[in-house]
Amino acid sequence: MSEIRSAxxxxxxxxxxRPFPLLLAAFCLAxxxxxxxxxxxxxxxxxxxxxxxxxxxxPLPPLDSLxxxxxxxxxxxxxxxxxxxxxxxxxxxxxxxxxxxxLLGIVGSGxxxxxxxxxxxxxxxxxxxxxxxxxxxxxTQVGEADLTLMRGSExxxxxxxxxx
Length: 164
Known about the structure:
The termini are far apart. The chain is elongated and about 110 Å long. It is built from three helices and eight strands; from the N terminus they run H-H-H-E-E-E-E-E-E-E-E. By secondary structure, it is α+β, with helices and mostly antiparallel strands.
């Protein structure tokens, strides 16, 4: 019998439930559900807002008066136009093409030649071959040391200066 007694352990007693936390949880749940459970009541007339008036179109200035504003660069600080490039010849001695580009050199690969032009205002250089357009001028010929451009009946030939 002593073996049976040792196998029987006393069962721990559970603590009595305290009703306050359960009541508090039920109250919070009821308070949260209150707006959805209550019937809807209309607001008094004194609280209701009057209906909005139809929007009125404001008079806009004529589009011709906005042309100067639209010409300004959008992503420049203060939206000021870029400074005009200098029309003086570049100091490196490269010949000018149309007064806005420098002829940096002529590149040949096989029988095809291309002219390397850089804008005076700065920016990326362009490699153009015969038949390409530069603004409204067509490049008609790229020689070994010169470049010929044509616009209508006008023609301009620019010779490449050789380094001394």
